[in-house]
């Protein structure tokens, strides 16, 4: 039996597809290719090119493939865009999930894995790693769509009886192979690599945070590790080890923006200069995952370190789209 992966042609989704295949699981991709690229998907994998918000189309696809579960990654993910276009984010991210859950319920699918985000935590109280039990208080529309999504999932599962887990990814970066890299410019590392390639200074937003060098601290986790966490979680859902759970996916280690700039210099062999701009609204100082829960429940810990992440993202970065 197969797993349906929505957003499987996207950056993280394609890594999940490759990891599922490598674990001998069957996969069907559902993707409208709005930001995804079908070339990331191996030829043997069926792609259903539909909008997940289309209830009837989603229902038809799930009825046709009768999957063991759905891994739902398809969503908009740009925090700044969500602040400018909140209604689009609420509509698409939540209609997409509602449509997926409706198809799950109509067709008796037993397992759902949902892409959530560290954005659900907002600005943490302290600078210690954030456990899943920490208060959730998202700072922007994007994070709120993820938190409401978790609630929608929880409530629907409680009344319809399927098992679910939400994976709260921290800052996903790197690539398992150049063809799968993040071609968007939403996240820090692709932006730094583009600046490096163009010989321009990088922009650092905020140099006066209460951190070790004044720049913001984030938990960067290799996308290959994130993909492996999905395989472990999918198996744990089927085995009943997970049934209604929220897990952080991170390394449990923080990296400042300036440390990331140094790492880009090491990976490319070219020191990257930078300019410091004022902080952006809603950018917390320090966001690092507490990873005890995922380690205890799934036996998963990140294998790759910071330099592995940056070197893998820098490989063949001349091909990155702009
Ligand atoms: N990249 C990160 O650091 C990060 C961190 C936390 C959470 N996430 C979440 O992970 C998921 C995947 O992110 P990504 O970085 O791979 O983004 P991405 O844009 O590369 O992938 C999203 C995929 O979903 C598809 N898609 C979008 N809307 C769709 C729709 N309505 N119908 C069908 N397909 C649709 C796109 O074509 C694309 O292939 C998202 O839910 C995102 O919120 C990402």
Please explain how this structure is put together.
- Strands 3-2-1-4-5-6-11 form a 7-stranded parallel β-sheet, with helices on both faces. It has a 3-stranded mixed β-sheet with strand order 12-9-14. A two-stranded parallel sheet has the order 7-10.
- The chain has helices at 11-22, 55-65, 79-84, 86-106, 141-160, 188-198, 223-239, 257-268, 292-298, 306-314, and strands spanning 2-6, 26-30, 46-48, 69-72, 111-117, 163-169, 171-173, 202-205, 217-218, 220-222, 244-249, 255-256, 274-277, 286-287.
- Helix 1 (11-22) packs across helix 7 (223-239), helix 2 (55-65) packs parallel to helix 4 (86-106) and helix 8 (257-268) packs across helix 10 (306-314).
- The protein has 2 domains: 2-172 and 221-249, NAD(P)-binding Rossmann-like Domain (Rossmann fold, 3-Layer(aba) Sandwich); 173-218 and 252-319, Alpha-Beta Complex (UDP-galactose 4-epimerase, domain 1), CATH 3.90.25.10.
- The relative contact order is 0.15.
- The longest helix has 21 residues, at 86-106.
- Strand 5 (111-117), helix 5 (141-160) and strand 6 form a beta-alpha-beta unit.
- The termini are far apart.
- It has 322 residues and is α/β, with parallel strands linked by helices.
- Helix content is 39%, strand content 18%.
- Bound molecules: nicotinamide-adenine-dinucleotide.
- Residues 7, 9-13, 31-36, 51-53, 73-75, 77, 92, 96, 115, 117, 169, 171-172, 187 line the site of nicotinamide-adenine-dinucleotide (NAD).
- Nicotinamide-adenine-dinucleotide binds at residues 7, 9-13, 31-36, 51-53, 73-75, 77, 92, 96, 115, 117, 169, 171-172, 187.
């Amino acid at each position: 039996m197969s797993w349906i992966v929505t957003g499987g042609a996207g950056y993280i989704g394609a890594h999940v597809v490759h990891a599922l295949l490598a674990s001998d699981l069957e996969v069907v991709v559902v993707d409208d290719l709005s930001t995804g690229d079908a070339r990331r998907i191996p030829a043997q994998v069926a792609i259903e090119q539909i909008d997940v918000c289309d209830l009837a189309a989603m229902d038809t696809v799930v009825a046709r493939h009768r999957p063991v579960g759905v891994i739902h990654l398809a969503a908009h993910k740009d925090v700044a865009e969500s602040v400018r276009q909140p209604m689009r984010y609420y509509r698409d991210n939540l209609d997409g999930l509602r449509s997926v859950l409706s198809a799950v319920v109509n067709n008796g699918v037993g397992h759902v894995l949902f892409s959530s985000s560290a954005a659900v935590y907002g600005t943490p109280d302290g600078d210690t790693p954030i456990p899943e039990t920490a208060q959730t208080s998202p700072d922007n529309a994007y994070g709120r769509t993820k938190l409401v999504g978790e609630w929608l999932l929880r409530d629907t599962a409680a009344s319809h009886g399927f098992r679910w887990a939400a994976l709260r990814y921290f800052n996903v970066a790197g690539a398992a192979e150049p063809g799968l890299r993040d071609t968007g410019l939403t996240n820090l590392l692709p932006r730094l690599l583009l600046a490096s390639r163009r010989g321009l200074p990088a922009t650092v937003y905020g140099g006066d945070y209460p951190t070790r060098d004044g720049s913001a601290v984030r938990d960067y986790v290799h996308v290959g590790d994130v993909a492996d966490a999905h395989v472990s979680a999918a198996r744990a859902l089927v085995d009943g080890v997970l049934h209604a759970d929220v897990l952080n996916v991170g390394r449990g280690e923080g990296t400042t923006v300036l440390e990331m700039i140094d790492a880009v210099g090491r990976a490319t062999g070219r020191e990257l200069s930078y300019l410091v701009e004022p902080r952006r609204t809603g950018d917390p100082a320090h966001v690092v995952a507490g990873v005890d829960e995922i380690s205890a429940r799934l036996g998963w810990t990140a294998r790759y370190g910071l330099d592995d992440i940056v070197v893998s993202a820098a490989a063949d970065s001349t091909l990155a789209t702009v």
